[in-house]
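Appendix B. One record, verbatim.
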Amino acid sequence: MPGYTTRILTIPVGGHDFRIRALSDLQQFADPTGRAERVGIHSSLWSLFGQVWPAGRVLAETMSQLDIAGKRILELGCGLGLSSLVLAHRGANVVASDHHPLAESFLAYNAGLNDLPSVHYRDLPWELPDATLGRFDLIIGSDVLYERGHGVQIAAMMERHAKPSAELLLTDPGRGNLGGFSRAMAAQGYEMEEVGGFGDEESPSPGRGRLLRYWRHAPVAHA
């Protein structure tokens, strides 16, 4: 027995039903080898990866409609992998990443549930450079500005892994950490626009969620 219980959810996205194995509830916890503790995942946060949150649904729905042709895509904090699975279903070149010890196995299981080939996964702690990951046209994430310091880490990730012309799509439920992150992105040459809003039934302030797009274009070389 794994030490936790799960359930199978059916999530409609873009006119297609995706089956997702999720943790049964937020009370689940299992860290028999201490791996989660070693990478800084406290028991109170351990189960968060294993839910499908409203911000994640919005991001997945956005991925069902986005132009993906020719783009190399990275998902940060993929959790159960819904957005990456939506992209894989559309044939996108996507890399899913997280740092939770169970994210990779849940992603693989969920790919199988949906008759999809394995989605490429990387264990990607945001604070540590990874010289082998390369650069991406599009980087996506849902509710990744969870703590105050995450904005600094993700801005550094963008500097390391975004191409000169690149785009970032974030769903943010309004945790108050957006301002500093947006300023850091502006310093890298990104413009920002709000392209959608959403309610969050888990939030004490429904309707404050936002879908944000950051983008920049490489300077045109002149002969």
